[in-house]
Specification:
binds magnesium ion, binds 2-acetamido-2-deoxy-beta-D-glucopyranose, binds guanosine-5'-diphosphate, 394 residues, transferase, Glycosyltransferase family 15 protein, transmembrane, alpha-1,2-mannosyltransferase activity
């Protein structure tokens, strides 16, 4: 019996669709990270290029880095982590990665901070994860508590608006406190009084590449103030008045602007015009501060102290959801010499979902460009192209 023509056509269409379906499944994913997003800023994603250690003076592991008082080569620095007791497993994972790739050679101390006392289990297990010294510090109440000038009613009203704008963690007061502490208080903790450089580490982050030089010495010997791995756009509705408040502050203190600042980077309106508009003049591009290697002398300067106090009084840590990342980034971009800000392209890093992934054989488990389509979309949140455009890759 002959099959009616429309039925044959339908059958053929079904077969074709099946083939197309199979093709979409088995076709090779994009094998390299797309560099399209870098067009008009830099030629292509620099992480596609083979890369190694930075230029300049590098100090290697030696006897002087043995644990304890034998470590005479170590400088005035610590790894630090603000962490909750419940995040012990995640903290151990981060420690294992950083110890394996770097710190077992240099034995810098770990300093842990918490707003409640650390449990014995937390201390025992983290102590066992390193040969280096470990310190456990309670945050003073006056550094953590909501400041007296914040109105509880106004905070509650503000949370509603933030939630309408889908700002994550808006109703978690502890998140606001955490952002404020990381912005302007951590370096005032008495345990850090005699410490200058810090490497901030969060639970559940990954380090992939072997680093064979003392990164703190790198900062000191090469006059670097701040090192980052990843930059991202922020949610503009979490910081609508951060830039306007900053503008007021600059108007009061024009002398604080550094002549070699990164204002053009902070105020870029070309790449993400809507972000700039909603954040009232700030691109929202920021150093992703769950990774930072920094010189606390900058945060302790009169300039930063005045800036932080201005912001703190304005109330945006609570009435909006100002993050420590945009606050640190704006301060560095305005008040520091931009040549003192360093992209650690050689430190393979991930805080899910974003990567800094160098193309180097020292890196295990992170392969440049190993992005699925979904991650390629996330990757658009990456604003490093703008940093390279306005500042460079130093
Ligand atoms: N001790 C303590 N640590 C906190 C608190 N809130 C956040 N943290 C830490 O601050 C960092 C950032 O918090 P997280 O919840 O990971 O925020 P996200 O990375 O922005 O999603 C992590 O290291 C947390 O362990 C808190 O209330 N107490
Ligand atoms: C370490 O640095 C801090 C902050 O810059 C400073 O106060 C302290 O004197 C330094 N300590 C040593 C031993 O150099
Ligand atoms: C760092 O700064 C000091 C003091 O300003 C200067 O003497 C030195 O040459 C600088 N080093 C580098 C590597 O730029
Ligand atoms: Mg986190």
């Amino acid at each position: 019996m002959a099959i009616a023509r429309p039925v044959r056509a339908l059958g053929l269409a079904a077969i074709l669709m099946w083939c197309f379906f199979l093709y979409t499944i088995v076709r090779p994913g994009p094998s390299i990270k797309t560099s399209a997003d870098f067009k008009g800023t830099v030629e292509r994603d620099p992480q596609l290029d083979p890369s190694g250690e930075p230029g300049g003076i590098l100090v290697r592991a030696s006897d002087g880095y043995a644990p304890g008082i034998a470590g005479t080569e170590r400088i005035n620095a610590t790894i630090l982590a603000l962490v909750r007791n419940e995040e012990l497993e995640g903290m151990l994972q981060s420690m294992q990665d950083l110890e394996r790739t770097w710190n077992h050679k240099f034995n810098y101390p770990w300093t842990f901070f918490n707003d409640v006392p650390f449990s014995e289990e937390f201390k025992r297990k983290t102590r066992a994860a390193t040969k280096a010294e470990t310190r456990y510090e309670l945050i003073p109440k006056e550094h953590w508590d909501t400041p007296s000038w914040i109105s509880d009613d106004l905070y509650k009203e503000s949370v509603k608006i933030l939630e309408e704008n889908e700002i994550q963690y808006a109703d978690k007061i502890s998140y606001h406190k955490m952002c404020r502490w990381n912005s302007g208080l951590f370096y005032k903790h008495p345990a850090l009084e005699h410490v200058r450089y810090y490497w901030r580490v969060e639970p559940n982050v990954h380090f992939f590449c072997d680093i064979d030089y003392d990164v703190f010495r790198y900062m000191q010997d090469n006059n670097k103030t701040y090192g980052f791995t990843i930059t991202l756009y922020d949610a503009p509705k979490s910081i609508p008045t951060l830039w306007p408040e900053t503008a007021k502050f600059i108007a009061q203190h024009p002398e604080y602007l550094h002549p070699n600042n990164a204002m053009a980077w902070l105020t870029d309106a070309q790449r993400r015009p809507v972000h700039n508009e909603q954040a009232n003049g700030y691109s929202t591009c920021h150093f992703w501060s769950n990774f930072e290697i920094g010189d606390m002398d900058f945060w302790r300067s009169q300039t930063y102290e005045d800036y932080f106090n201005h912001l703190d009084r304005a109330g945006g840590f609570f009435y909006e959801r100002w993050g420590d990342a945009p606050v640190h980034s704006i301060a560095l971009g305005l008040f520091e010499d931009r040549s003192k800000i360093h992209w650690f392209r050689d430190i393979g890093y991930q805080h899910i979902p974003f990567f800094n992934c160098p193309n180097s054989d020292k890196c295990k488990g992170c392969i440049t460009g190993r992005f699925t389509d979904g991650e390629a979309w996330l990757n658009k949140e990456d604003c490093r192209p703008n940093w390279f455009k306005y500042v460079g890759m130093g």
